[in-house]
Design goal:
The chain is mostly helical. The chain folds into 2 domains: about 10-100, lambda repressor-like DNA-binding domains (434 Repressor (Amino-terminal Domain)); about 120-200, no CATH class. It is built from 9 helices and no strands.
Amino acid sequence: MGMTDADELPNDVWARINWLSSTGSEANIARRLRLVLAERGWSQDAFAAKVRAEGVRFPQSAISKILKPQGEPRAITVDEACAFARVLDIPLAELVLPDDVYQLAQVVHDMRMLSKLYTDWRTANDDYQNARSRLLAFLAQPEDEEQSSGARQAILHRLEQARTARDRVPDSQDAEGASDVPRFAAPADMAWLELLEEWERRQ
């Protein structure tokens, strides 16, 4: 008889699966759901609808029975737990494990990944700074080249959009103690806002 895919899994993977199954519980899932739904201000109806959108049969009454603080809670299927993790955009282990156990697992993961994350961040930051420098150098060139006029106008258009968005920030954000970073901005907006401010400083 040939080996199955399961037979080929490394022993440490099976150890992790066994550890997860012995440590995790439905009670941990219910507790975590209560916390996350409260933090995000999601109603049980809204959460149930999101779970159903993942292709899982899940009436609103199901979540209320899972979260009931007293009595015997409703059991959670594997499909439901996986859908919960996708809807909440958090790892399944974070739902299943107790807080202290998940925190320890996360710390070990962070220790292993820290050097790689730092290298990736430095590389990404260098790429970002180089892209900014190239765009600013391009804008500083004379405008007599027809071939590049379209690209120049496209850049200026994006900068104007960033200026308009910046000007819409309420004056209350300029109050003492407020953050210097406009709260309206998504990461993509912030990139163009920083480019705009550097461009303005050079004018």
